[in-house]
Structure prediction request, 307 residues.
Amino acid sequence: MNTEKLCLLANQLGCEVIRNGMLRDFTTFKVGGECPLIIAINSEESLSRLICACADGGMRYMVLGKGSNMLCDDKGFDGVILLMGSAFSQIEMIGDCLVRVNAGCSLMKLCRFALDNSLTGLEFAYGIPGTVGGAVYMNAGAYGGEIKDIAEVVYAVDGSGRSREFKRDELGLSYRGSVFQKNGCIITSAVFRLEKGDREQISAKMEQLMSRRREKQPLEFPNAGSTFKRPAGQFAGKLIQDCGLRGLTVGGAQVSKKHCGFVINTGNATSEDIKTLIKQVQDTVLEKTGFFLECEVRIIPYSDTNT
Prediction:
């Protein structure tokens, strides 16, 4: 199947099609070149049929939510982006404290829904700039809470376009990890179990955590969240700071002066700037402390042949 046929199918399915979109416009790092075709997914059926079409046509594809934990290549992406966003973001109550939400829903929207319904358990996620799909995929967490604490069931589509259901004990949720990082399935929705709470208390906690984010994190600069995973018994930011790397700069990329665990785009960073800086930080910390900082940000190459 060629691009034109895929566009025709996407239009038939009611999906918005964006040609030659710049990935910097779809990622929080504000870095990334051109992608020939971006399709906004609007249903699980659309996702399933488009995956099958890509597979049949030998076309490379990637799912993108808010783009908050990835670094795209300056050259772009030589395939199809399946965008999970506002067109696929419905939320519904399916029980007193059970919420089913589509993968394209932003965590901020979900948190506000929980607040409006006096449901507690999601406060930790307020301010995380990602979607539900990405949050489950990475087992997002902050301030003592994680997705694994509330996830009950996750629905997904496999590489053949078939619907799959994963119960709580099948999710493999661990520190920044899940079974979906291994099985290649694409998350379409999730069911979260929350608890009844006091609306004012929920709101106060959300605002408290948001204030902490603003105070401690470089939200004023484009970034992809925490750049490095936390080594056992250590904190990545402190190790970087102790190695004297605060403010270290390569081109437009910089180790944040506000929080050393973040690499930021000061305005004109390229993907090569960011990758070079990450490598310099890793090498220096390893040499001086013996700890290797594993990169938490997903590096997306231009093509499958990239090394």
User: Anything to note?
Assistant: The first strand starts at residue 16 and ends at 22. Helices lie at 3-12, 44-56, 107-116, 132-138, 180-183, 199-216, 236-242, 271-289.
